[in-house]
Each structure stands twice: as structure tokens, then as C-alpha cells.
Write the C-alpha cells for this entry.
Amino acid sequence: MNLYQPNLVRIDEIIEETADTRTLKLSFQDPEIAEGFDFKAGQFGEYSVFGAGECTFCIASSPTRKGYIEASFKSVGKVTQAMRRLNVGDTMGFRGPYGNHFPIDEMKGKNVVFIAGGIGLAPVRCVIWNTLDLRDQFKDLTIIYGARSVSDLVYKRELQEWGNRSDVKLYQCVDPGGETPDWTGDVCFVPALVEKAAPAPQDSYAVVCGPPIVISLTLPLLEKMGFAPERIYTTLENRMKCGLGKCGRCNVGPVYVCKDGPVFTSAQLKTLPPEY
Amino acid sequence: MRRMLSRTDLDALVRDLLGAGTRVIAPVRRKVQGREFVEYAPVQNPEEIALDGSQPVRPLKQVVFPPTETLFNYKQDKGLVQIQEAPTTFSDTLVIGARPCDAAALEIVDRVMDWDYHDEFWFGHRQATTVVAVACTDSDESCFCTAVGLSPESTRGADWLLIPAGSSFEVRVVTPKGEALLESNKSRCPESDVPEAGKASSAVEEKVRANLAMNPAKLQEWLGAHFEHPLWQKIALRCHGCGACAFVCPTCHCFDIVDELEGVGRGARRRNWDACQPALFTLHGSGHNPRKDQSARFRQRVMHKFSIYPSRFGEILCTGCGRCIRVCAAGMDLIAILAEIGQNAEEAGSTL
Amino acid sequence: MEELRELAKKLLQEKQVNAVVGYECDRRGVRPAFVDDPAGCDRLVFDHRCVQNLPAYLSPRRTNVAGLGRLAVVVKQCDARAVAGLIRESQLKRENLVLIGVRCGGVAANPNESRELGAETLALRCYGCSGTETAMADYVVGEPKTVPAAGGDRDARLAEIEKMSPEERLALWKEWLSRCTRCHACRQVCPMCFCERCVAEKTQPNWIESSPHIQGNFSWNVTRALHLAGRCVDCGECERACPAQIPLGLLNRKLAKIMSARYGFAVTDDPSTPAPIGSYRLDDGQEFIL
């Protein structure tokens, strides 16, 4: 089996997140691979639909939940449209895990604030469940999540679950105009909610994922609030093909996002050209 | 004592290998629509081999990195998929008459193909291929191998280097693979006490040197500090944004991965050459493109070759073959561009 | 040459344009030049090595060239056919552009040609050309020149291929097109390939396989040739740009002949002449439509 050959996975469950976003729950067909598979929060994979091609997503489930992986995707291009046409029981391909990961061990004993916009909650969700599953090892956990509109919020069941838990604080917002009559969250942009709800920067880590606009506004804001740039983590979403540091597509300056990333600190991003 | 190989014996060697089923690739002359050129191609008999010709229009990389290569095939039936593996071992190939700049590229690209994950396809081809390079006896105004640390008789990436000496070649054995080739052809390569025929290629080397002098370390330093510079915009105006420069480059190795159907329920996943110059290369599904215009894309090409690759892998990703200059329809001239950047670096001096 | 430089200088000084697109000498021959400073106008040249079709830079996908602002462009009569084509297809407004027409006298096949212009060096598209300026020009520079006599029949090779059996033709094109590596230089240098997203890059559906195997290469090169039927301006840039040495011009030439025979259309620098692909006449031949 060569390194471009994927493992076969079966679609166990399809969860409709929004009108154009789905989560697929996948399990490896080969029991030996299923048994041996392990990954760390933040790592990604190459998911494929045979006949359509490969697509890069983070693993959206937590490494603490064994036996399956989840991928959340928006139907945009050829592969994601093909993924949308698949049913439970169908076969897909998966190569991975690839890339680096969030420093879960380093975050232990500290506060962590999770900030996400739109489908950017997928990589963050992986870390959220990872920390929640080891809840006693972390101090305060705060989730700040926003989307364009109420219908664009992903992982709605989980948002409800996190909102009901007393050991994690959840703040949600939608962009002005995106609210519904029964919306109880804020109506503002993500950075405004960060200013309002983020914990004190001392002893805290931040994990930020979302569209480029959320990243470019939130990282400087957190720094202004006193977060150390080395403790603000985000992921870069450059286009990839191989995931193996070969095909040359994800270069940002000297960095191969697929190998050196996708997880970077705000401090690291400052040393890179703005090609992401 | 030096070993010599006559052209007649070289032809006999080729005939032996062809007879044994080895694929032999060599520069051959072509004529298409009145245009004459030389290119690397499989030969059926040694007479086709053109060892004194001009530089092949396309590099040797296609031998170890085919423009399209099947990664695996699959069959699909009602949601169930069966994968048929593609082989990563290949039949023996002998390249006769590789240009030193093409041979060196193989070794340079080895680095990225093995820095973490080991690319079985690349190394499968590499292992199956024996490279006999021939020192250059001519150059043109686009050659600049000397500026990137190579020379018209550089042995990098070659298993043998042949140095033309009259109607024969001096054989320089470079690698264990080359030793093995000599072992089976010892009688054809007699030792000779003929004194070295003077450096046949020194005149060529002088000629290449005159094209470009470059300080790679300084260049790298300047590039590292000048991601933003008016130069990029100025240079890239004439660039058409095609992949010709990358596709004829012996060191460019970017690729795409695609699925293609081959009838109902059957298909293949392939990797194909790709290039950083077209806009599509980095375009996200959302429509966002981290490299907005041609200046950003051309800058990436220069950066990757002379700053990024050297900083990651300790090698310049360029062998000075000059093909990008020769093929460019817009007259983009890497020698002139490197000279201009070099001058900027010189002027920036120690203030960097 | 002085006339050209003085004109360019004047246009820039009077701010009639922000930049002049012309030709300059480089180390090896002649290449396109973008001059936005009156002092830089002395770089401009025009001679038989000025092969490139500069209107290719006017296509709206050239965002960085568009960023220069209002342009003056040096055009040979043949280049002006591309300007006319872009206007005809609503890609360009004539009033947004200043055209400097040159009296050309023919060009070589290659911008690095060091020999004099003659039967041996003359570009194919110059065969039979008058070498006069285009009627579209806002300004005309240079003395009238004569194009050297052609070195033979331009279409001799095409006639040979036409005589072949379909099997022989297929074998020939298989051999040539198998060389294609899909760098798309043919498309990128083409002034008439202005699509925002080329059909070759569309994935839903994936009309053209992107792999450079023989079926993908046929699919790409034949589609491109057909898309240029009645649109190709016969500048020969695709063939010159092809690093695989594929004689692409033969395909375009063949289609131009078909367009001429069937629709009486010949490529022209008159933008008001309707393109066959964009116009309908009752007497259009349509017996091939079932």
C-alpha cells in the first residue's frame, strides 16, 4: 500500500448541520486499522470520494472518542458535492492523520477560551471535546461562537449540551440581521463577543478558528487584551493536495502548512508572509 | 589511470541492455513541422542517440516523475469500493546522455521526496534508473549552472559521467550503481594512460560563467527580507501565468491529485504535474486566493527556488539549465531577474 | 523608432494614458515592455523581432496589467485583430484604449531572431500580409515597409495532412498531442482565451480530464481549437509558446479555412464585422444539424 492510497471508511451516520453543511461519522472498514488508529486534536486528513477526488478537512471528532472519526464539510466544490450525495453505508477513503496538533498537554491546568466563526467550529469542537473529556485537568473553559445567522450555526445539539453544562461557559452570537425572534444569544460579530466574554488573559490559552476575517480581527484583539501571542492558537486552511509535504501547494513562505501546521500560534504567523 | 569508452563500445553497451529488456532513454533528434530539436526519449537502437546535440528541450524529470502517474485504481459497486494497488517498483531504465543539470536535479528533488514521508513512486523510479551523464560541450546565453554551484561537468545525480574526448569518452564512475555498470562493461572501458585531454569543458564553463555571477547566500538573505518589494510587481507584468517554466524545469515538482473515471464503477486516482503560476493552484473553494495576482505567484516561484527550498532543504531548487528562459513566450528571463535581485542584495549590503 | 518614443512620451506626459505597452530589447532579443514613466520611453523599440501579440495583455483576466490604468498599446495590423476580437466579444471598450499602429513590414517567427528578415525567417502569419498599419490606430508610426517574399506555400503542410487518410491523421495527431503536458501556455498567451474560468478547469462536471494522457490531451487541444473557430486571430503565439513543440497552429489554420469556406468569415481588424459564432444568418450552412 503506497502512501497515496487511502484506507477505506464506512459512513455510519450523516448529521445535517445547516442547509449546506453536514457531518459524516466514519469508521474504518479494516478492524486492524480501526484498532490502531490514533490522532491528536487539530490534525487533519485527506477524505476521498472515489471518482470525485480528495478533499482536506480537520478531524472534527475528539481523539478521546475511539472507534470513529467525524468530518464536517460545506458543499462547495466537486468533492464536497459528491460527499453530499453519499448515503449511510457508503464507502469513502481516508488518509491521515497528518500535520501537527494543538498543545493539549501544555494547556492542562490553564484556562482555555475557544473562539470560532461559522464552520470554523469544526477544528475547535475537536479540542473542546478533548478538554471536556478530561475536564478535571483544565481550569475555566469558555466557548465563544458566532455564525452569520441562526441557521448557519453548526453542531446545534452540542451547543445546547455545552450551554446546559455548568463546567463550561458558552457565549453565542449571530451577525446583525441573522437573528430569529427566539434567539437568546448576542447579535454582533465574533470579535465584539470576544471583548465581552473572554476570560482574563493570565494563565489562559486561546484557540481561534474561522473565516479569514474572524482570524484577522480576533488575533490582534486578543493580543491587545493581554493574551501572549505564543498562547493564541489558530489553524491555516491553505489548499492542499498531498498532505505529505510534497506537492507544494500549501506553502506559506518556508512553511508547509500540511507538515508544520495546520496549527500555528499568533507569534508564528507574524514571521510568515500573509499568504493564507 | 582513466577509463575510456569509444562510441562504438557505448553503442554495444546500449545494444546489450536493450537486448536484456532494459529501457534506454537518451537525447534523440526530432523534427516537427520543420522545427528541429532534441529531446529525451526511449530509443530502440543506439544510432538514434544524439550525444553532441543541443540541450533536450524538456528535462529528464519525466523519467522519474511522469507527467501523469496512476496512484491506484479502484472498482466500485453499490457503495463498496475495492482498491487495486499501483506498483511502486519499475523496470530497469538506463539514461544515456543526461545533461549534468538534469542529473543534478534528481538528487536535489530527492530531498523533498524524502524529508518526512518517503515518496515510493519517486524513489521507485529513481532506484530503477541508472543515469549516465555527458559533460556539456556547448552552452547558450540561457545556461547558468555555474551560478548555482554546478558545472558543465558536474557529477551530481549521475552514476557515470562521460567526458567527451575526441571520438571516445572518459568514464567517471560516481556511485555504486555506476560501479555495477562498469563491472559488467569492464572490457569496453579499458584503462588508458592518455593524458587528460585538457579540460574540454573549461571553455564552456567560462562561457556559462559570463552569463551570471550570483551569491546564493546573499540572494537568499535578500529574498527572506523582501517579500514585499516593487520589483515583484514590475517583473510579473509580462508573465502570462502559464506553467511552461515549471513544466520544463528539472527541479519543479509540484503536483495535483485527481480522480478520473474509466467506465462505470471503475476509475483511477492520478497525480499530474502542476505549477504555481496559474491562479487556480492556490484558489480556495470559498473563492479566497492567498496569492492574489501574478506578481504574488511569480514571487513564489523565485522564493521557492532561491529562499524556501534552501532554507528547508539546504539546496537551491534550480540547476541553471535555463529552460525556463528559453521557453518563455513573454521573455521572462531568470538570469536577468537573479542579476537584478543580486544587485539589490549587493546594494543592501550589510544593512540587511 | 524616435517617432514611437516621442509619441509614447507625449501620451504619458499629457496623462492621456498611465502606461504604454510596447516592446523593448532584452539580453536575448525583444520582449514586451510596460512603460509608465516618460523617461522610460527610450527603451521602446520596434523591429522585425517584435513578434509578441501585445493585446493578450488587455484581456480582463490580467488583473495586474489592468491595475496600471489606461493603456496605450503598440499594435501591428495582425495584433489589432485581437483588439477587434476583444471589442466584438465585449471584453474591451475601444474608448478606454489608445492604439499606436506600427507600419510593420513583417516579423520573424522568433523574438530572438538574430538574422535579417527574409524568406527563411519570416513568420508564417506574415505570408501575403501587406504590412501596413491597422485602420483602428489612433496614431501611426514608422515609414511604410514591404514584407519580404514568403518562403513557400504557407499551407503546404496542411495540404499534406488533408490528403492523409483519417487513420493516418489520427496517428499523427496522437504522436504530437501525446507530447502535451497541459501547462496551458497555449491558452495563457492567447488574447482570445479570456475566460474567467476555462472549461478545462471546470470540475462540475469535469468536461476535460486534466491528466496529460492521450484522451485528456485530445480533449483539451481539440476543445480549445473548436472554441477558437472564427475567433482565432492567427497570431501564432500558442504554437510559439508551446514547450512541447506541438504544431498547434495547424489546428487553428484548418478551422479558419473551414470558417472561411462555410461562413465567408476571415479574421479582421474591423470590430464591426460580426463573428460567425455570435451572429446568425438565414443562409448559414446548417445541413450538418440533424
